[in-house]
């Protein structure tokens, strides 16, 4: 590539972001038989298909969805499960299997390798390892500027940049960052957050041989629940009170769980039975219900909806039982450093202050809470230039039901679209592969017919 192209390629699509969402979208687009289709996948990391979630090499970092639900293809849900068995990573009697995330990265990598080999003669797939800086609409399409000074043009661009973590706050560091230097194995550490990111941090510390105390602090001090094998209940959209206020909906849902538990049905099967309707529920809520859910209910929903593999849950709860992990419901009031860190935490329940002395503070508070502060150059550029805007809750970019980016003045773009976690303001449940692959399949059909 040597600078800007001189002419447009028919049916050309640039996917900005070559992590899981980008690879899944490319795979769905390339199911088309259109010989004139051109898909360009751009990723700044050395390897495609990884992103934040699947770049870990730690075997204890496993998927939070069983292998049966992790196919990249919406129309072939057993694809990943067969892939595992064909390569000797699993046998049918082991189901459900929660495979290491590094294995899933390998699956996506092989999938892309196969697509690249298949399309080598057609030229329908092009892979670029470079950082994207901006997307600019042109008279005939879009131009994506790259960090190496060149640019790529196409009819349209799809943002698939995945999760964006908030920068570590204050004295805290991110697990695995340059600041995460070696610690004495018996050192006490504090983790900000008690969700799945905290679980990952605990497993990483154990892998390093760390045996010191871990104080995990969050507003509610709650751990994600474990998966159990079950059968989701069958619901019809007519059964669900769409468009109601949050308090009414929560009451209905609690009653539904109680009724099913009386019949011997696990609450997980009720939560999972609601899954096909989660996006419709979110989209039918009034703005006030969405805001209240994010501020007050989401933490409870997350620990029941986004669960841990049973073997990981067993390790974490044993660490809690033995005192290795201490869960604290509260908020950090003050941090002073004099060699070690002196941290004051105010209890959520008693309002009392408690002091902790720790050698390091890990920030596991998760994803960006305001998309306009994103560390992603393309996202920030679009918002700064008014070509995109945050959704009303600022948890993602504002997009239409057709995944089209909405500009600062409210106009809907036919040239710049988005998939995956960036679209959570519109779709909400769009963080996991089972939801992303359906979104990608729909978008592919929308774009290519």
Give a structural overview.
The chain has 449 residues and is α/β, with parallel strands linked by helices. It is built from twelve helices and 15 strands. The chain has helices at 20-29, 79-86, 101-118, 196-207, 246-262, 267-274, 278-284, 287-305, 310-321, 377-384, 424-427, 433-448, and strands spanning 12-16, 38-43, 125-129, 132-137, 142-146, 151-154, 156-159, 189-192, 214-218, 325-338, 340-347, 353-358, 360-363, 404-406, 412-418. It has a six-stranded mixed beta sheet with strand order 3-2-1-7-15-14, covered by helices on one side. Strands 12-11-10-9-8-13 form a six-stranded mixed beta sheet. A three-stranded antiparallel beta sheet has the order 4-5-6. A hairpin with a 1-residue loop joins strand 10 (325-338) and strand 11. The chain is globular, with a radius of gyration of 23 Å. Residues 1-10 have low confidence and may be disordered.
């Amino acid at each position: 590539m040597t600078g800007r192209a001189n002419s447009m390629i028919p049916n050309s699509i640039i996917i900005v972001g070559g992590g899981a969402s980008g690879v899944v979208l490319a795979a769905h687009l390339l199911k088309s038989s259109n010989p004139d289709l051109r898909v360009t996948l751009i990723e700044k990391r050395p390897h495609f298909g990884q992103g934040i979630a699947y770049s870990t090499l730690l075997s204890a970092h496993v998927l939070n969805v069983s292998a049966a639900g992790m196919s990249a293809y919406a129309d072939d849900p057993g694809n990943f499960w067969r892939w595992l068995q064909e390569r000797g990573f699993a046998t049918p009697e082991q189901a459900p299997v929660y495979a290491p995330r590094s294995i899933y990265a390998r699956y996506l990598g092989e999938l892309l390798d196969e697509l690249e080999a298949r399309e080598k003669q057609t030229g329908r797939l092009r892979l670029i390892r470079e950082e994207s800086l901006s997307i600019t609409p042109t008279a005939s399409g879009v131009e994506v500027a790259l960090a190496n000074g060149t640019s790529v043009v196409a009819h349209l661009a799809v943002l698939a940049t995945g999760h964006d973590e908030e920068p570590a706050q204050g004295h805290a560091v991110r697990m695995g960052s340059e600041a995460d230097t070696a610690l004495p194995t018996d050192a006490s550490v504090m983790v900000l957050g008690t969700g799945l990111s905290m679980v990952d941090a605990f497993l990483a510390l154990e892998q390093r041989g760390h045996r010191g105390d871990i104080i995990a602090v969050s507003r509610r001090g709650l751990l994600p629940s474990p998966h159990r094998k079950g059968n989701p209940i069958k619901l019809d959209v007519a059964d669900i009170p769409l468009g109601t206020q949050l308090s009414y909906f929560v009451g209905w849902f609690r009653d539904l769980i109680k009724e099913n538990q009386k019949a011997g049905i696990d609450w997980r099967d009720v939560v999972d039975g609601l899954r096909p309707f989660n996006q419709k529920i979110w989209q039918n809520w009034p703005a006030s219900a969405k805001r209240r859910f994010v501020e007050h209910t989401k933490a409870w929903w997350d620990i029941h909806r986004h669960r841990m593999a049973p073997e990981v849950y067993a390790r974490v709860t044993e660490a809690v039982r033995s005192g290795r992990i201490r869960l604290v419901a509260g908020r950090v009031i003050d941090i002073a450093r004099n060699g070690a860190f002196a941290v004051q935490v105010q209890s959520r329940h008693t309002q009392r202050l408690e002091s902790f002395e720790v050698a390091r503070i890990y920030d596991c508070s998760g994803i960006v809470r305001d998309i306009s502060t994103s560390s992603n150059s393309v996202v920030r550029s679009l918002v700064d230039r008014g070509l995109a805007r945050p959704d009303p809750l600022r948890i993602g970019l504002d997009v239409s039901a057709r995944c089209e980016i909405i500009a600062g003045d409210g106009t809907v773009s036919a040239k710049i679209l988005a998939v995956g976690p960036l679209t959570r303001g519109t779709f909400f449940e769009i963080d996991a592969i089972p939801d992303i692959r359906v979104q990608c399949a729909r978008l592919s059909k929308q774009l290519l017919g």
